[in-house]
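re: ur msg from earlier - yeah i can do the magnesium ion complex, just paste it... oh wait u already did. ok heres what im feeding in:
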Amino acid sequence: MKVVLEHLTKKFPNRNKKIKEDVIAVNDFNFEIPDGKLIGLLGPSGCGKSTMLNLISGLETPTEGKIFFGEDDVTKLPPENRGIGLVFQNYALYPHLTVEKNIMFPLENLKGDKKLTKEEMKKKALETAKLVQIDAYMERKPAELSGGQQQRVAIARALVKLPKVLLLDEPLSNLDARLRLQTREEIRRIQRETKITTIFVTHDQEEAMSISDMIVVMKDGLFQQMGKPQEVYNEPVNLFVAKFLGTPPINVFKAKIKKEKLYIGEAEICDAKNLSDRDVFAGIRPEGVILNPKGRLTCKLDRVEVMGRDTSVVCTNDHATNDILRFIIPAENKIDEDDKTVSFDIKPSKLHVFDAKTEEVIKL
Ligand code: ADP
Ligand code: MG
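and the outut:
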């Protein structure tokens, strides 16, 4: 089931009563989520991700705009009639019910010709429990399960009615690092198996990049960019997106275009054909340099960290906006830690230039 958002907007009265203006939690969103895909909705805390999910689920009513599931306008439909499954950060299971009863719960109040017998409900609950690999614990209560297992039960409960759209709001945030990794792989597998259109909300770029078919990046209620994770990483449309994606983060320099050349300080970095003089930001991905004593970019060497396959060169530069810069080079490249400076060539595909005022990308 594809999901289409048209001019979707949600305003809230400001919680700070002294401020008259509304908070625009979701600001004029237009996009189409293709059928059967897993979309990562990504942005910093407070940017409107949960509000967006609540609008799609029907828990919130939009101030403006429309939501379509397939060709159907569902904007005014109550949540229970939308055919959605919801999973939240705090698993919100019924503590007094067994795993089986928790998973069966959404089936209990089906009406009319959809009404199921106890046996049918038990069968469906077991099938779904198998899908999320929790079927060995059907008789346990939530308190007798680990966080990861509880979250699987919550996912099973969201899936048992075979929703048209599955909505997950930071489902892994309460899990420790190892379980987080494992559970995100599980979610990916379950999504592939069921092919249910899924929206996965997270503030963790690595999480979104690793499991999503497509990511949507938002900031302050505003759409920034949508695309395959690697495309967005390779072609960020603005400085915010460039900085938000990638670990270690992109290295950003205050730079200038002058006489059709790009400069960082006095260092001429590359051509900037047909571009007028202006201030810019130059972003270089950590993997975007090649060690060269005669390279155009010179930084003060702080330290070198060898990490198996790679070497991380930690350095500084007076023109950088990052306090420390981090470049990743192959471990075979030897650097003398006693050197005061280190110089690099820059790989053109890893260099991104943004207008200093608008912070929009400039193509060199
Ligand atoms: P996220 O999930 O990305 O952290 P939210 O969607 O929860 O962000 O919130 C987006 C913005 O809307 C925030 O500024 C938040 O304070 C505000 N907001 C969310 N819900 C309400 C509400 N019920 N009343 C007032 N403001 C709200
Ligand atoms: Mg949220």
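cool cool. The chain has a mean pLDDT of 95. ping me if u need the other ligands too
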